[in-house]
Design goal:
Elements lengths: L8 E7 L14 E2 L3 E8 L2 E2 L12 E2 L4 E10 L13 H8 L4 E3 L2 E2 L8 E3 L11 E4 L2 E10 L2 E5 L11 E2 L2 E3 L9 E7 L7 E15 L5 E8 L1 E4 L32 E5 L10 E2 L2 E9 L3 E2 L12 E2 L4 E8 L5 H11 L4 E10 L2 E10 L10
Antiparallel strand pairs: 1-2, 1-15, 3-6, 4-5, 6-17, 7-14, 8-13, 9-12, 10-11, 11-12, 15-16, 16-17, 16-18, 16-21, 19-20, 19-25, 21-24, 22-23, 25-26
Length: about 375
């Protein structure tokens, strides 16, 4: 009987068409990860009636149950501009909106660093990202079918015939979808598991160390395993076999490459680009609650998202420049600013986050 090695573990994630309806895993649903946990949370029913003895009577069968999960991975873009990353189902389940794909375009003369002119209709909307060279920016205004305004501005104005690269943007929405998380091991006779009805309650992006990292955690409807599977669980008639291959694209983003912009000239910032970032952490929390108290069911019937909360914590070295002073003043006066974070500098392998509005808190000094 061989041990089950932690190296021989593969995960797949696929969006569900409805809550708890487990789809079939495909090679394109595979993704690489650092560590994961998939747990079944079971309520145990303890009898309180007198038995005539001091001996514990044990627990009664039944009781409600649900799942929970935590997946940590390097931040790995697809490596191809306009192509979703392998962990796309997690990003969509966290943000809630249907991904918006920009197929790319070509700049014409007359562009500035913040006003981009296209040679043809761009089909962009506010909130979508575009890329030029080693930078990615977000559209804040659609001026016409061939012109947009971006924030923050690009480092240089694109010349005529400059390629504007494709992107995939994950917008926020009120009804995030759920996904199924498949946990396969070798040998095939080991216990295989599926978490169905997985709702991403929290997404965390960490900027530190050798590689940027992302963590997804949340709640699920049920954990199905190959050893105790019965027809009907997760809407399945049989436990799905693992795909014979995996599609793993891209490489992890190096932790030292990227940009951070805080504030704008309208907030008193002479320049909003900071070069002194040491660490940063972005958290998106969806406040999910499971609707699992209905009579007649032991597992939740749906997951309901609550109030969304986004926090952005970062450490920068202090300088005696106007930008650092403006950031402190904005925090002191509770003035709302914008924040932009770009991770990576290679076309097809960049990740961007745009936050607006952000109310900075008074910074704490670390004199060590």
């Amino acid at each position: 009987m061989p041990y089950v090695s932690t190296e021989l573990n593969r995960l797949y994630a696929a969006l569900e068409s409805s809550y708890g309806a487990t789809p079939a895993p495909a090679p394109s649903n595979a993704f690489r990860f650092l560590k994961s946990s998939i747990d079944l949370v079971q309520d145990y029913l303890q009898r309180q009636d007198k038995t005539g003895s001091r001996s514990f009577a044990g627990v009664a069968p039944g009781g409600r149950r649900h799942g929970k999960f935590d997946v940590q991975s390097y931040l790995i873009p697809s490596g191809t501009a306009g192509t979703p990353p392998n962990m796309a189902p997690f990003f969509q389940a966290a943000c809630g909106g249907t991904p918006q794909t920009f197929t790319g375009g070509t700049a014409i003369s007359g562009c500035t660093t913040s006003s981009i002119l296209f040679s043809a209709a761009h089909n962009l909307s506010v909130g979508q990202a575009i890329g030029i060279g080693k930078e990615i920016r977000f559209v804040t205004a659609v001026n016409s079918s061939t012109a947009v305004t971006v924030d923050p501005p690009f480092s240089t104005a694109p010349a005529a015939a400059t390629a504007i690269t494709a992107t995939v943007t994950y917008p926020l929405a009120d009804a995030p979808p759920t996904l199924s998380l498949f946990d396969y091991w070798s040998p095939s006779t080991a216990q295989q598991r599926i978490l169905c009805g997985a709702a991403v309650d929290e997404m965390q992006v960490d900027v530190s160390g050798d590689f940027h990292q992302v963590t997804f955690s949340g709640l699920g409807q049920d954990v199905i395993d190959s050893g105790t599977f019965t027809s009907g669980q997760g809407g399945l008639t049989s436990f799905p076999t693992e795909p014979t291959s995996q599609t793993n694209n891209g490489t992890p983003l190096a932790g030292c490459l990227g940009q951070i912009w805080l504030g704008s000239p309208a907030n008193g910032f002479s320049t909003a680009k900071f070069a002194t970032l040491s660490t940063a952490k972005l958290q998106l929390q969806n406040g999910f609650q499971l609707r699992g108290s209905e009579f007649g069911n032991c597992i939740p019937q749906t997951a309901v998202a609550g109030q969304r909360k986004v926090t952005f914590d970062f450490d920068v070295f202090e300088l005696d420049d106007t930008a650092t002073a403006a950031l402190y003043n904005a925090a002191r006066n509770r003035t709302q600013v914008t924040a932009f974070l770009q991770l990576g500098t290679i076309t097809g392998s960049m990740f961007g986050i745009y936050l607006s509005p952000v109310t900075p808190q008074i910074p704490t000094d670390d004199s060590s």
